[in-house]
Amino acid sequence: MQVTETNAEGLRREFKVVFPASELGERMDARLKELSGQVNIPGFRPGKVPATIIKARFGDAVRGEVIERALNEGAQRTLEEQGVRPATQPKVEVDEYEAGQDLAFTIAVEVLPEIEPADFAKYTLERLEPVADDEAVQEALDGMSKQYGKLETVEKKRAAKDGDVLVIDFTGRVDGEEFQGGKAEDFHLALGSGTFIPGFEDQLIGAKSGEGKDVTVTFPADYGNADLAGKEAVFEVAVKEIKESVASEIDDEFAKQLGHESVDGLREAIRGQIESGMKDVARGRIKRTLFDRLDETHDFPLPEGMVEMEFESIWQRVQQDKEAGQLDADDEGKSDDDLRAEYRGIAERRVKLGLLLSEIGTRNNISVAQEEVNRAMMGQVRNFPGQAEQVIEFYRSNPQAMDQIRAPLFEEKVVDFILEMAQVTPRKVSREELIAASEEGEEGKAEKKAKAPAKKKAPAKKKAAAKDETPAKAEASAEKKAPAKKKAALKKKAVAKGKAKDD
Amino acid sequence: MTRRYFRKIHVNMERMHDIIRAPVITEKSTRGSEHNQVTFRVAPDASKPEIMAAVEGLFGVKVKGVNTIAQQGKVKRFRGRLGKRADYKKAVVTLEEGHSIDVTTGI
Question: What is the pTM of this model?
Fold first, then answer.
């Protein structure tokens, strides 16, 4: 086998490989000999078929097989010998071949770029440590007390107002006729709840208990019952009682009701809840800023094939969204070219970060242990109560799905690793500050990219953050040759998940 | 093998195709190929001179001799009744030195 490099431009490599006819012939003979022991031809006992007859019968098929193997082997050996780390599946093309002649073919492949990770110790990042202030806790507590409040009849006569619950009898008529479902007694109607057709509840504001009132409303045109849709109806309403909801007292009693020792315990629990929710946001923010920093401080050529693949998968989804009429609000009205340019930028970023993270990971021997994967898998299982076995079976029989679990874990580990080395300054923030900060981060980013209005970038960024993990996985599992399709599918899922989380 | 002299006879093209039915490709027949012999199934009523003329005419070779076997069809039972497979004739044709027929390619 003879290998010559014909092209080494940027990340592209092209090799011309020539297999001499003699080598091919040897392989064919070996294969034919192997076959002669197996085939069954009438007139011959198995294994007694003369070589000439086997050759006449199976020659062509064996030749095809041998050539295919030669191509595969040639590609593999070439890449190995030349020390090329392919980024994409190598493209193999036969230049010329005729039976009995030398086999010549070209291998075109893109290599992984040499990545020199920056000095993370120079990174200065800010870790926001959310603190739930007393106000927020109080607010949550108030909300709860209201939720667990009870209705109490208003003793003194007063006009009904928004938020009250009225106990009413009513009879509805359309054109003087009563209709099905238009009559009820002792109905509890919460004003402002929107239970009834629009206008009904509004007209009862100001009513007093013991009072009768006629309410005239028009059924909306798209009302469920076609007979009534668009018709005007008169409801005779008798208000029997006005009730208002009274928040329950915030005391130890209330806390016990919710399963806590005391009010203080309850407060602590609420605080913990709020903080853990905010921690995710804070984590998301520091990750995002870290990714931005990584993006800025690294510059290496990207394999076009990978970018193209990534872009295709995004673009496909965009097209689907478009057809379903669910395009991101800020994507609407943009020309395809604009969108393409924008999403290509995102695809490039993802590929870049993916390669970078996997490189950092392999350099520093970061790996995800099977136990960790299992733990994460059990987490998934919990999302499907009652189907635990099917879910586990699914992952067991589906290494791709396993990788999908592994990828985010790997990403988290690498991020943790970098954060450990970087100079991270903690800062305590309240919830408002946190939200403001994480939004600002996104906006700032968008401006820097200066490719689209700031608003646009926000969701895109999220997607990017969620997706960054996937290329990392592809690398990590050394499955560089995994079919593009599968990767794409995985990514889509990852995006969906990431989005859900962000929302 | 002593050369057999057949009387040269004329056989028309149509008859030639009738005479030569198919090559016999078996372990036994391939053994003959070491001695420059080729085996055919031939029409049961074909004579040795006819076979010689047909092989020479169809394959463009020179024939040294012809041996024939009239093979009786086997008696087979089907649903309790006796039946008989068709009889056939095989011809082992010996070619002159330097001549050959590739039986796998057909005419």
Answer: 0.50
